[in-house]
Amino acid sequence: MLAGPLGQPRTPGIMFGGYRTVSLDGCKSVRVPDTGANRAWLGKQDASNGETGYPALSLMALVETGTRALLGAAFGPAAGGEAGQALQLLHLLDATMLLLMDRAFDSGDFLAAVHAARAQFLVRLNANRRPPVLRHLPDGSFTSVIGGVKVRIITAAVTVTCHDGTSYGGTYRLATTLLDYRAHSAQALMALYHERWEHEVAYLALRHTLLNGRVLRSGDPAGIQQEAWALLAVYQALRTAVTDAVQSVPGTDPDRASWQAAVEAAQDLVVTAANITDPGTDLQGDIGRAVLARLSGPRRPRVCARKVKSPLSRWNKHPAGKPRTSKQITSITSHIDPAHYKPPTRRPASVTTTAGP
């Protein structure tokens, strides 16, 4: 079985406060042939001028953020939403994990299900949520209850400053089951939430580098499912080779590994039919050695223009306030806001934010 976490506890980026960090998120851009059978199974997504040209799989994955390895995946029609699809993966959670999630997963029922799976969680809340204040804590957070689960709420204004003086930011409100503010400070949890974006990097590697934008081939659902599992298996096998290689050099952060180097090395092995049986016993292998030869330097904080040329994407228009070109980040600050909490009203006050990091 390929699926599962790959990082060792001492590997940089794997753990936070004694917990392995994992994330849930969905992807709806793996396209399949436009046949009657596939349309009947998956339907088509709405677009600005009708509907999309191709049906698309709704893919949900549970990912280890430190290595971007797959702990599990589910796919099929988009009906039921991301949270409904994610319920199929909650049995993979355990008490050693801290689950990072965005606002699509903040419903009380879903958070209660995560809590029942014994995992801790850190989730961003929708702006219209008004959880009750039970107790204010010294670090600016407060305790509350969502879905019958006792949580800690952290609100912060996050500001990103670039090398040319440009700055932008927004308001983030997080809920977590890590209730001890001494062991897990509000500032540390606000910084940790950024790691959720490692999930997007996993989908980037899967869709754009490995699949290379191709449409899956089969004209019927059974064939599509077979292709999808094969694609995920190849992805996880390469992630395993990359992670084994990186962990053979203690102290190396998996973020420094080049996914492109791994894919190119694997393609060369297939094309040349070389090293089909490897008599060696090292964990590096040809793919690992190629990765280690092309390790990147420490990750540079930078902001990239968040615009996608697709009518289905919420990023098809440039977010207000965000730089239109890539820039180096010189600082990221978060100001924890302990006081200005508004109690529930009949008509919740709107929260205005600029683009987040």
Overall description:
It is a single chain. This protein is an alpha+beta fold. It has a single domain (15-293), classed as Transposase Inhibitor Protein From Tn5, Chain A, domain 1. 26% of the residues lie in helices and 25% in strands. The protein has 8 helices and 14 strands. Strands 1, 2, 5, 6, 7, 8, 9, 10, 11, 12, 13 and 14 form a 12-stranded mixed β-sheet that branches. A two-stranded antiparallel ribbon has the order 3-4. α6 crosses α7 (259-272).
List the defining traits of the structure above:
25% strand, Transposase Inhibitor Protein From Tn5, Chain A, domain 1, 357 residues, single chain, globular, alpha+beta
List the helices and strands and how they pair.
Blueprint: E1 15-16, E2 19-31, H1 36-42, E3 46-47, E4 50-51, E5 56-64, E6 69-76, H2 81-86, E7 97-101, H3 108-116, E8 120-124, E9 135-136, E10 142-146, E11 149-162, E12 167-176, H4 186-193, H5 198-210, H6 221-247, H7 259-272, H8 285-293, E13 302-303, E14 327-336
Helix pairs in contact: 6-7, 6-8, 7-8
CATH class (first level) name: Alpha Beta
> How much strand?
15-25%
What is the CATH topology assignment? Transposase Inhibitor Protein From Tn5, Chain A, domain 1
Question: What's the order of the H and E elements?
Answer: EEHEEEEHEHEEEEEHHHHHEE
Largest sheet: 12 strands, mixed
Low-pLDDT regions: 343-357
Percent helix among the residues? 25-40%
Nearest-angstrom radius of gyration? 21 Å
CATH architecture: Alpha-Beta Complex
What's the total helix number?
8
Q: Briefly note the structural class of the backbone.
A: alpha+beta
Q: What number is the mean pLDDT?
A: 87
